[in-house]
């Protein structure tokens, strides 16, 4: 749990990360059969010196000392580089939803997770706009822990109404 003086922290959820690669990369380099095969593959990842949160050092969870072909401080740039065939990339499952240019690699044997927390200053936790945003975020994760968008929005709306009735009061005022 994150801790900071004067802050209230609450766990919103947990998301899974998996390894992905483009079809062209896999055709060229081969699909790894097991985690040991990753030593002969190239990876797309963050610029180590620019990482401000240790929690995004997620590639370290699945391979030590990877061969890196592309660095970026942008997850979107990493995703696009991997889609372009520059290497394998470890991404949150919600980030690749709807993309058919990246295919799962070793998903049945290799993944990691990260927790997501919301932190609110003690003095602001009961302010209506803060409660509204906090309630929305809590409901979003409660409605869909894998962070996949519900296109109808009904599931999210139902969760919002159950999570924090104060949101309904805010909408009617």
Task: Report on the architecture of this protein.
Helix content is about 30%, strand content about 25%. Strands 1, 2, 3, 4, 5 and 6 form a six-stranded mixed β-sheet that branches. Mean pLDDT is about 80; it is low at about 150-173. It folds into two domains: about 10-115, D-Maltodextrin-Binding Protein, domain 2, CATH 3.40.190; about 120-170, no CATH class. With about 170 residues, it is of the alpha/beta class. It has five helices and six strands, in the order βαββαβββααα. The chain starts with 6 loop residues before the first strand and ends with a helix. It is elongated, with a radius of gyration of 19 Å. α3 (about 130-145) crosses α4 (about 155-165).
List the helices and strands and how they pair.
Layout: E1 7-21, H1 23-29, E2 42-45, E3 67-71, H2 75-83, E4 88-92, E5 103-105, E6 111-121, H3 128-143, H4 154-163, H5 166-172
Parallel strand pairs: 2-3, 2-4
Antiparallel strand pairs: 1-4, 1-5, 1-6
Helix pairs in contact: 3-4
The first-level CATH class name of the largest domain: Alpha Beta
Mean pLDDT: 80
DSSP helical segment count: 5
**CATH architectural designation of the largest domain:** 3-Layer(aba) Sandwich
Order of helices and strands: EHEEHEEEHHH
Number of domains: 2
Distance between the termini: 35 Å
Round the Cα radius of gyration to an integer and report it: 19 Å
Q: Quick one: overall form?
A: elongated
CATH superfamily of the largest domain: Periplasmic binding protein-like II
By secondary-structure content and strand pairing, the structural class works out as: alpha/beta
What portion of residues belong to β-strands?
15-25%
- What profile does the largest beta sheet have? 6 strands, mixed
Fraction of helical residues: 25-40%
Q: What fold name stands as the CATH topology of the largest domain?
A: D-Maltodextrin-Binding Protein, domain 2
Oligomer: single chain
Any low-confidence stretches, pLDDT <50, length ≥5? 148-173
**Secondary structure tally: strands:** 6
């Amino acid at each position: 749990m994150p801790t900071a003086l004067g802050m209230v922290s609450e766990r919103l959820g947990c998301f899974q990360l998996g390894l992905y690669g483009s079809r062209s990369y896999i055709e060229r380099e081969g699909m790894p059969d097991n985690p040991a095969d990753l030593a002969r593959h190239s990876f797309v990842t963050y610029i180590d010196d620019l990482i401000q949160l240790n929690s995004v050092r997620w590639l370290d969870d699945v391979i030590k000392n990877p061969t890196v072909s592309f660095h970026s401080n942008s997850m979107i740039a990493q995703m696009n580089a991997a889609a372009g065939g520059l290497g394998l990339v470890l991404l949150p499952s919600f980030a690749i939803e709807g993309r058919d240019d990246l295919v799962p690699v070793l998903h049945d044997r290799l993944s990691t997770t990260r927790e997501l927390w919301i932190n609110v200053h003690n003095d602001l936790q009961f302010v209506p706009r803060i409660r509204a945003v906090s309630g929305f975020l809590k409901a979003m994760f409660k409605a869909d822990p894998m962070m996949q968008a519900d296109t109808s929005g009904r599931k999210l709306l139902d969760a919002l109404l159950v999570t924090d009735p104060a949101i309904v009061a805010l909408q009617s005022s």
